[in-house]
Amino acid sequence: MSREVERAVAAKGAFPLRLEGPRLLVRSFTVDDIQPTYVAWLNDPEVVRFSNQRFRRHDEETCQIYLSGFEGSSNYFLAIVLRESGRMIGTMTAYCNEHHQTADIGVMLGAREAWGKGFGLEAFSLVLNWLLARSDIRKVTAGTLAHNIGMIRIMERAGLRLEATRRAQELLDGQPADIVYYGRFKDA
């Protein structure tokens, strides 16, 4: 893709994206992905334990509203799918800032049976590497509550470095909790 086309695509919003890894396909999330299983993930206290999604109740309509917020933007809402079965096991977001040439990514594995098998790292790495290969992105960031050891391991194994800690920024189970922020530059 030429730089001009890449910039036009980024400026017009999230085009259909498809990234393939050894076990996963990360592709654009569509309205057809808003199924009862997906909505159930968002309402599962264990799945959203470290996410601010835990403060909301989700249904098909709130999910459609969220998805529509990506239309016409340079941001991406992605489905994480098992290549072999075609079953969606999670989602990702990539919020791209064209002015600063940065992207902030997040991952949610909703299917609990997929936890601890390296799927989060594979999906995160696919999106991270795709973003860092783009000419309009110079840095990728991610963050989480310091209690979210699984996400911290993903960020560190993907080559991100700790950049900042916001002490006692949020409450988790009524107790103050730190947020940690990680980043990786294109040339790192």
> What fraction strand?
25-35%
Major sheet details? 8 strands, mixed
- Mean pLDDT across the residues is 92
- Rg measurement, Å: 16 Å
Write the layout of secondary structure elements.
Blueprint: H1 3-12, E1 18-20, E2 24-28, H2 36-42, H3 60-68, E3 76-82, E4 88-97, E5 102-109, H4 119-133, E6 139-145, H5 149-157, E7 161-172, E8 175-185
Parallel strand pairs: 5-6
Antiparallel strand pairs: 1-2, 2-3, 3-4, 4-5, 6-8, 7-8
Structure description:
The chain has 188 residues and is an alpha+beta fold. Helices cover 27% and strands 34% of the residues. The chain has one domain: Gcn5-related N-acetyltransferase (GNAT) (Aminopeptidase, 3-Layer(aba) Sandwich). It is built from five helices and eight strands, in the order H-E-E-H-H-E-E-E-H-E-H-E-E. The longest helix is centred in the C-terminal third of the chain and has 15 residues, at 119-133. The two termini are 23 Å apart.
